[in-house]
Design brief:
This protein is mostly beta strands. The protein contains one helix and 30 strands. The protein has one domain (8-335, 342-356): Methylamine Dehydrogenase, Chain H (7 Propeller). The protein is globular, with a radius of gyration of 19 Å.
Length: 365
């Protein structure tokens, strides 16, 4: 175990989130944002590490944790409730584990391949690390690591330019996006359950960000050349709908798709247009019902708080999901707006992590 010897903690409150929770039994909800983001330059906070925001106090900054290694740029931030840990990946590529309760980096590993958006099994035993959109050919796929120490268990070669993984909310499946293919694997054996191809549009860097409903029935995959998405029937292994935003086609990529936790709405990110488009997901295909403007550009991302109240994006803007109004702005200790696309919701009670969100806006009905 590597102690937090090279990590500095800057306090804005008298105690850490975990210590704050020890003094009261109510749940404390925080948003952990890693910085700098390897995929965007807009809105970067000064320094490298994690910024912690209090969700229930207007998303005000609680404090920052300086982690020099993050200067390499973070590519992903996955959480494990079972291990009360965050698993980060950097551009190096570096993979590491950060214990949220002890605030120690428990292990780090460097691999020739790997370090894009990772995910963790529900039991906290394995970390799945996609090899990255920059890796083509036979080596591309996912690294399976032991979550306890980061040692490589196996490498699963699946498609080219693998860069987005997520574990389903029931823990049964691993979803992996590669060049125009969405693969579903069994999390016990990493054997292939489904493969759907072609998905998305040609000319992009693999399957763009996607989300999945809680029943593992439908996947919603961002398009690479238009603002819109495809609906994939996972049981039938086929695309059943391609949906574009209303009006004239918007000829640039979509980079972000999220379901509200109750799965009634789908929000997608128009990266270049600085907008989010909202769709009614109670009907099939989903129907556009609104949009909101974003204050800046960036990587393009969107997800929801666990209770569905808040919308977080790649910008400093925090939206109320019901009113679609900006209700808070993420700011550093100097009042400067800050942003990124790698963040995790974490709940503490009595000094222990009791709930965690996900980078991806997964359905949770």
């Amino acid at each position: 175990m590597r102690k937090f010897a090279f990590v500095t903690i800057v306090f804005l409150w008298a105690c850490a989130p975990g210590e704050q929770a020890e003094n009261q039994s109510e749940t404390q909800r925080y948003l952990y944002l890693s910085t700098p983001d390897a995929a965007q330059v807009e809105g970067q906070a000064e320094g490298a590490g994690i910024l912690i925001f209090d969700i229930d106090d207007g998303h005000k900054l609680v404090r920052r944790i300086d982690i020099p290694e993050f200067e390499e740029g973070t590519r992903g931030l996955a959480g494990s409730l079972a291990n009360h840990s965050l698993y980060y990946s950097t551009q190096l590529p570096r993979i590491g584990a950060f214990d949220l309760e002890t605030e120690e980096i428990t292990w780090e590993q460097n691999f020739t391949l790997g370090s894009d958006r990772s995910s963790v099994t529900m039991d906290g035993s394995k970390v799945y690390v996609p090899t990255g959109w920059w890796v083509s050919g036979e080596e591309s796929g996912v690294l399976v690591l032991n979550a306890a120490d980061g040692e490589l268990i196996k490498q699963v070669r699946v498609g080219s330019q693998a860069h987005n993984t997520l574990v389903s909310v029931d823990g049964r499946y691993l979803y992996l996006g590669t060049t125009r293919m969405l693969t579903v694997l069994d999390t016990e054996t990493e054997s292939i359950v489904h493969q759907i191809s072609p998905v998305g549009e040609s000319g992009g860097q693999g399957v763009f960000p996607y989300t999945v409903d809680s029943a593992n029935r439908y996947a919603y995959v961002s398009l690479g050349n238009h603002v819109g998405f495809e609906v994939v029937d996972l049981e039938q292994e086929e695309i059943i709908h391609r949906v574009l935003v209303d009006g004239d086609p918007i000829m640039h990529r979509t980079h972000g798709a999220a379901l509200t936790p109750d799965e009634t709405e789908l929000w997608i990110s128009d990266q270049e247009g600085n907008k989010l488009f909202i769709f009614d997901n109670t009907q099939m295909p989903p129907v556009q019902i609104g949009d909101v403007d974003l204050s800046q550009g960036g990587h393009g991302w969107v997800t929801f708080s666990l209770d569905g109240q808040y919308v977080w994006t790649h910008t400093p803007d925090v939206f109320d999901a019901e009113t679609r109004e900006v209700v808070a702005t993420l700011r550093d200790e100097n009042g400067n707006p800050v942003s990124g696309s790698k963040y995790i919701e974490v709940h503490f009670r009595d000094g222990k992590v009791v709930a965690m969100g996900n980078e991806f806006g997964l359905g949770r009905r």
